[in-house]
Specification:
alpha+beta, conserved putative lor/sdh protein from methanococcus maripaludis s2 fold, Elongation Factor Tu (Ef-tu), domain 3, 6 helices
């Protein structure tokens, strides 16, 4: 290697002197004896300096020789190292974004009472799955039943008054036509009949209100979902549209998964969404099989604090494996890269100069290759530079390898 030629010449010259019976150490000793003879140095001091000089010269030579090579080559008599290998392959690889997300209920309903009253019965247990239309809570409806009966009685009375007013108005119409009564008296009777008719309509509205209040005493589930903690018990006094809340229901089938990605991917996401729905996989915290869904929402603003954009995915969640508030591992698949060069991830090592691996050559020696790794998907690393499809790479046993090491391929170590 260029830059090491002076050192090689020096070592060669030293070797020749050794063969001639005049070593580097002797030459150095002679030189030092001559220079130190007038100073009265002792023989012991000369030998000590000679030893130190010899060590320094040969240490420097060894250190410099080591620095003259980029990668140390294996010595000729180095043992054969057993390794496991795999072939670099060419295949289609997905382009994906990975993130941490959390579950969000598809819809959440906090049920409050629409009338003031006393709870007479609770028909659910906390944590129960309920179906839309199931009876959840019953209030004491006796006051409302009484109000309904009163409204019905008022309606009957006012209907009778309406009928009488109609007869009187008809009678006075005939008397007026005969010239018996003045026009003012006829008008009074007609107004009385109209007022009684309006009273009947008001009574009918009161009856509808009373019936609604009676119906509000039975609270049903507006959606299907999972109920939360039991917040009220028989005997609890509740107010209209006020606390305490009777029950909270979360619809979790389907379910949303919220997650965020860096803003630099926003353009790619919008481009790929324009071509079709983007699939998402969400793996629960127990690392079981992932759930499949699709991207349904991209927020209308980037979070300036974190530089991320919020996304939502919708999942059927038919087996209820995903849960509101649960953290999940999210994979958003954008596209698929064709003809990508891949190797097993365990073949890739990391050193001071970056990622590298060992390639087995036809003569069963290894070559060290510095790599440019694109990404890792399902245990496979996409190699952008450094390895070609079909080459054999070492997947196990790398710790004993250097460039040029002889290897023996094994199926297990």
């Amino acid at each position: 290697m260029k830059g090491c030629e002076p050192l090689q010449a020096f070592l060669q010259y030293s070797w020749q002197n050794e063969q001639d019976g005049k070593s580097i150490g002797e030459a150095a000793e002679f030189s030092r004896e001559t220079s130190e003879e007038g100073a009265g140095s002792t023989s012991k001091t000369k030998m000590g300096r000679f030893s130190k000089l010899t060590i320094i010269v040969f240490s420097l030579a060894l250190w410099t020789v080591g620095g003259c090579t980029e990668h140390a080559a294996a010595p000729p008599d180095a043992p054969v190292v057993p390794v496991m290998v795999a072939k670099a392959a060419e295949r289609a690889m997905p382009v994906e974004l990975h993130a941490i997300g959390s579950g969000q209920a598809y819809s959440t309903v906090s049920i409050e009472s629409q009338v003031a009253g006393i709870v007479s019965a609770v028909h659910y247990t906390q944590g129960q799955f309920v179906t839309k239309g199931d009876l959840l809570v019953s209030l004491d409806d006796r006051p409302f039943q009484a109000a309904l009966a009163l409204a019905q009685a008022n309606l009957a009375k006012d209907k009778a008054n309406e009928a009488l007013a109609d007869v009187e108005a008809e009678r006075y119409q005939k008397l007026y036509e005969s010239g018996v009564v003045p026009k003012e008296q006829l008008d009074e009777e007609m107004a009385t009949a109209a007022a009684d008719k309006a009273s009947v309509q008001a009574d009918e509205a009161s009856i509808e209100t009373a019936r609604l209040n009676v119906s509000f005493c039975s609270i049903y589930a507006p959606i299907s979902g999972r109920v939360g903690n039991q917040l009220i018990y028989p005997g609890t006094v509740v107010k209209a549209d006020d606390v305490p809340i009777l029950v909270v229901i979360n619809q979790i089938s389907p379910i949303y998964i919220n997650f965020s990605v860096p803003q630099q991917y926003l353009g790619e996401i919008k481009n790929y969404m324009a071509r079709g729905r983007l699939p998402i996989q969400a793996t629960p915290s127990d690392n079981s099989a992932p759930e499949s869904g699709y991207l349904t929402f991209v927020n209308n603003t980037v979070d300036a604090t974190t530089g991320t954009i919020q996304l939502n995915g919708t999942f059927a969640n038919s087996d209820l494996r995903l849960w509101p508030g649960e953290f999940v591992n999210v994979i958003l698949r954008l596209s698929e890269q064709q003809n990508a060069t891949v190797v097993p991830s365990q073949a890739v090592m990391t050193g001071q100069d970056g990622d590298y691996l060992f390639v087995v050559r036809p003569d069963m020696t290894v070559d060290l290759r510095v790599l440019k790794v694109g990404r890792t998907v399902d245990g496979l690393s996409v190699i952008e530079e450094g390895v070609k499809p079909g080459e054999t790479v070492v997947t196990d046993g790398q710790v004993r390898l250097i460039a040029g090491t002889k290897v023996r391929i094994r199926t297990s170590l």
